[in-house]
Design goal:
The complex is a heterodimer of chains A (307) and B (405). Chain A is α/β, with parallel strands linked by helices and 307 residues long. Chain A has 16 helices and nine strands. In chain A, the strands form three sheets. Chain A has a five-stranded parallel sheet with strand order 2-5-8-1-9, sandwiched between helices. A two-stranded antiparallel sheet of chain A has the order 3-4. In chain A, strands 6-7 form a two-stranded antiparallel sheet. Chain A is elongated. Chain B has 405 residues and is an alpha/beta fold. Chain B folds into three domains: 165 residues, no CATH class; 41 residues, no CATH class; 163 residues, von Willebrand factor, type A domain (Rossmann fold, 3-Layer(aba) Sandwich). Chain B is built from 17 helices and nine strands. Chain B has a six-stranded mixed sheet with strand order 6-5-4-7-8-9, sandwiched between helices. The chains are: A alpha/beta (307), B alpha/beta (405). The interface between A and B is medium-sized, with 28 and 36 residues.
């Protein structure tokens, strides 16, 4: 039986693809597959929203198509564009007597002259793929409105051609950092999941599996440190991606555990703290306090969760 | 055919939900649940309910505990709803668990002080249509109050009070913290009235506007000189900027936090720049943008550490010269939230406001008193103020768009 037939099986597949998903997230991805509904993932930057799409593609053995949204994104860059140069070339060739005029008239606006961009490509794939629409909150509302047709009916309307139906239905993953409110219409078409920062146990597990070369003590202490750092009043709270970077930096510096002297640690914090205010806020005194916090084995619930 | 969508536990006791105790058809039960969620602010349509049923049918029967995660994904549309869903799900489908926990452990949840409970009740009453909400969670959720046999557990316990409390006309100083979420819609209305200003500078537009010949011809080089794609340009439009300055001196103590809240709404909705002033001035825009729980403490630390007096003219001058620089332009809105009691020389305020006006900005003075501020400084400065507006309750705030008239 295909493992993706059940949420537990899919979770296993995601784990093998290098993504440690909690039960809820795995269930949601499974539901997205079972009900053919897009997933809308919201959360702080660096918690693994984009990574779940890549991991799903690997786990399901599907190609990944990615559309990075930005202000001013239009249909020509996201859906389709007519290949004007090629059309003109064909016209010139026909005029020069090298082609059939009637056939050209019928075919000038056909799929042969259509340049497929990610959204169209995703639904015209023979095999289902994973479509990642990254940072949808950066795109304009007009583009969001266009997505409604594509996400609910899995079809795209090209005025010259008519409606292009999906050959296969992709697993669509939309991510948002919450910089602006998405429309209710879009939200209603999606399955929603809010990705929060992982718990200590889960984050330790993630770092262990993705940075296997780092010593176990280093990983545990570093993750515990980051978890405490997140409770500080920072402008930009470090995500999992930052923790991974930091552990890699510490490993390259030759540490097997967090150094006792906070001064040694402060330069490496560049991997965790990404704004000037945060750098200014987290002084060596703050680092010393964070280092002196309860060690990992004493943190509530960790020992149990790790078993 | 629908599989078993509900957990194999009795859903409601007659004491807590007499109206829905008889529902046995899974779809009917699901409908009741959707109704319950709607009463708590979830936007669930028929499509979502159908999807919930399909999700339940698709899930292997043995894995029914996962249903909560699946339905949560379908029903929620925002982080707030995402966070609330679990409690609602538990309260609806497993009310005995909710009450059981309360009984066995006494205080399992964070205890609330009476003002918080009152504030929450106010908020709930304002958000829910009368009679739509089921009382089970509202009562059982509170530690020590989940006795189903108590006479107050009947629906009338929550639905009896009138929601026609004259909150709109109540002074801000009488407001409870829970009432303050009502600024955003008013500021939205204000934003809708803002008109963009047409500039002389041109800007690319994908499909409308005059044809930019030079760019179109340049583009045509890639198609052998044929003008296949045209470049359009339109005159640039610029939305007026809003600058809001909140007086947090001692004389404004009772109103300052409401004005700060209004300032925050303006920052969030209209991307305004916010300042607080006292005897000195400080910009608080970044603090108001940060969704930190400690924002109020930070703003307080910035604003209340200065002293007792007010130097309005000096602070407005500093905002204009140091912080705003040349960014304040024609059509922008310079909004001062103050009672007008100034310790600077009376003519200073008039001079500063004249400079603001000379830039073409509109000066709106929002005062917490019903009457216009009567101080000498204000009397001299009044000719430069485009609009005075009393903001002492919600009804007066609803006139905010009139500032743009």
């Amino acid at each position: 039986m295909d493992e993706s037939q059940s949420p537990e099986g899919l979770r296993e597949q995601l784990f093998r693809a290098g993504y440690i998903a909690d039960e809820d997230l795995a269930s949601l991805v499974w539901m997205g597959l079972a009900l053919e509904r897009p997933l809308l993932l919201e959360g702080e930057a660096g918690v693994g929203k984009t990574a779940i799409a890549a991991a799903s593609a690997r786990a399901l053995n599907r190609p990944l198509l990615r559309l990075q949204c930005y202000e001013g994104l239009d249909l020509a860059q996201s859906v389709y564009e007519w290949n004007y140069s090629r059309q003109l070339l064909e016209i010139r060739l026909t005029e020069a007597g090298a082609g059939d005029r009637a056939a050209l008239r019928d075919n000038l606006f056909s799929e042969a002259f259509l340049l497929e961009r990610p959204l169209l490509k995703a639904i015209r794939c023979a095999e289902p793929c994973v479509l990642l629409i990254d940072e949808i909150d950066r795109a304009d509302e007009a583009f969001e409105a266009f997505l409604l047709e594509m996400l609910s009916e899995y079809q795209v309307t090209v005025p010259e051609l008519g409606t292009l139906q999906a050959r296969s239905k992709p697993l669509v993953v939309l991510t948002s950092n919450g910089t602006r409110d998405l429309s209710d219409a879009l939200r209603r078409r999606c399955l929603f999941h809010y990705l929060d920062f992982p718990t200590l146990a889960r984050e330790t597990q993630i770092v262990r599996s993705l940075v296997p070369e780092a010593a176990g003590r280093l990983v545990e202490e570093a993750v515990a440190f980051v978890q405490r750092l997140r409770k500080q009043d920072l402008e930009k709270i470090p995500g999992v991606a930052e923790t991974l970077d930091w552990v890699r930096v510490l490993f390259k510096l030759g540490h097997n555990g967090l150094p006792v002297d906070p001064q040694l640690l402060v330069p490496s914090l560049a991997a965790l703290l990404k704004t000037r205010t945060d750098r200014w806020l987290v002084t060596s005194d703050t680092v010393a306090k964070l280092l002196d916090g309860p060690r990992i084995a004493q943190d509530v619930g960790v020992a149990g969760a790790m078993k | 055919m629908l599989a078993t969508p509900v957990p194999p536990t009795p859903r409601h006791t007659p004491a807590t939900a007499p109206a829905i105790a008889e529902a046995t058809d899974p779809r009917e039960q699901l409908g009741e649940f959707a109704h319950y969620l709607r009463a708590h602010g979830f936007a669930l349509g028929y499509a979502e309910v159908d999807l919930m049923a399909r999700a339940a049918a698709a899930l292997p029967v043995m894995q029914w505990p996962r249903l909560e995660a699946l339905w949560r994904g379908i029903a929620s549309g925002s982080q707030t709803q995402w966070t609330r869903y679990t409690a609602l799900h538990q309260a609806f489908w497993f009310p005995h668990k909710v009450r059981g926990t309360t009984r066995s452990s006494g205080l399992t949840q964070k205890s609330r002080s009476l003002p918080e409970v009152v504030a929450q009740m106010h908020k709930d009453m304002a958000n829910q249509p009368p009679g739509a909400a089921k009382p089970s969670i509202g009562v059982a959720d509170q530690a020590g109050s989940g006795n189903p046999d108590a006479p107050d557990a009947s629906p009338k316990a929550q639905g009896g009070a009138s929601r026609s409390a004259p909150q709109d006309t109540r002074d801000f100083s009488d407001w409870l913290p829970g009432d303050m979420d009502r600024f955003e819609p008013l500021v939205e209305a204000f934003k809708r009235r803002l008109r963009a200003k047409l500039m002389r500078r041109l800007q690319d537009h994908p499909e409308r506007g005059a044809i930019h010949l030079r760019r179109s011809l340049r583009q045509a080089l890639s198609t052998g000189g044929e003008l296949v794609q045209l470049h359009h340009v339109r005159r640039k439009r610029r939305l007026p900027k809003v600058v809001v300055l909140v007086d947090v001196s001692r004389s404004m103590e009772t109103h300052a936090q409401f004005f700060l809240r209004l300032g925050r709404a303006l920052v969030e909705v209209m991307d305004a720049r916010a300042f607080v002033f006292h005897t000195r001035l400080a910009e608080v825009t970044p603090l108001m943008r940060t969704r930190s729980k400690r924002i109020q403490e930070k703003v307080n630390a910035v604003s209340f550490g200065f002293g007792g007096g007010t130097r309005i003219a000096h602070c407005l001058g500093e905002a204009l010269d140091v912080h705003l620089g040349r960014s304040l332009k024609s059509g922008d809105i310079f909004m001062v939230l103050s009672d007008g009691y100034d310790t600077d020389a009376p003519e200073d305020l008039s001079a500063v406001l004249a400079r603001v006006k000379a830039r073409g900005a509109r000066i709106c003075w929002l005062h917490p008193t019903v009457e216009r501020p009567q101080s000498e400084a204000m009397r001299l400065a009044a000719p430069h103020v485009t609009h005075f507006m009393p903001v002492h309750n919600l009804a007066s705030l609803s006139k905010l768009p009139e500032l743009l008239a």
